[in-house]
Design a protein that fits this description.
Layout lengths: L1 H28 L19 E9 L12 E12 L5 E14 L2 E12 L6 E8 L15 E11 L8 E2 L2 E7 L4 E6 L2
Antiparallel strand pairs: 1-2, 2-3, 3-4, 5-6, 6-7, 6-8, 8-9
């Protein structure tokens, strides 16, 4: 019994000695992660990925201007997250629409940035397929309509200032079907 304890102690001491010699060298042998200049400079600020979120909501009758027919709200947003999975910005668009008899009876679009963090700044809406801000009345009397918007966001890390241009699109139909997409976050 005593002999087995001594053997275990000797093996444990030997393993610890080997780790003490090898581990520092192994740590030095592992290179630090590098990122290409076009992808990111700081993992918490400009590295990360984009994602798309979309859904349908039903609001109070007053939100639809008391329009005729059945009404819904389709929303979509482009979200940018850093490598720690924290949101650095969101760009959202929603379309409220009503329909009756296969045609659109009400259309209203809203768009906005939100949740800017880690130095990201919203530079404004830079594109849209609507003449007026809310696309009021777009597609009324027809079977389908769509609205897309594009925004610009930037962040500066020392001398490096990447820019993202999220694009969010929502389409609706006179039979209540809708869809959305987003990219560029």
């Amino acid at each position: 019994m005593e002999r087995k304890r001594r053997q275990r102690a000797l093996v444990t001491a030997l393993v610890l000695a080997i780790l003490a010699v090898v581990a520092p060298g192994a740590a030095r042998a592992i290179p630090e992660p590098t990122y290409p200049a076009e992808s990111c400079y700081d993992a918490y600020v400009d590295c990360g990925s984009g994602e798309v979120e979309t859904g349908i909501a039903i609001e109070s009758w007053a939100a639809y201007g008391y329009a005729k027919g059945t009404c819904r709200t389709r929303w979509a947003r482009a979200t940018r997250r850093n490598l720690a999975w924290m949101v650095v910005f969101r760009y959202t668009q929603q379309v409220r629409w009503c329909w009756s008899g296969g045609v659109i009876t009400y259309f209203w679009r809203d768009r906005w940035p939100s949740d800017t963090a880690f130095g990201w700044t919203f530079d404004g809406h830079i594109g849209s397929n609507c003449v007026a801000e809310h696309c009021s009345g777009r597609g009324v009397g027809t079977y389908s309509a769509d609205a897309w918007t594009q925004g610009a966001f930037h962040v500066c890390v020392v001398w490096y200032c990447p820019t993202k241009y999220p694009l969010v699109s929502v389409w609706v139909r006179g039979d209540g079907v809708s869809g959305a997409s987003a990219s560029g976050a």
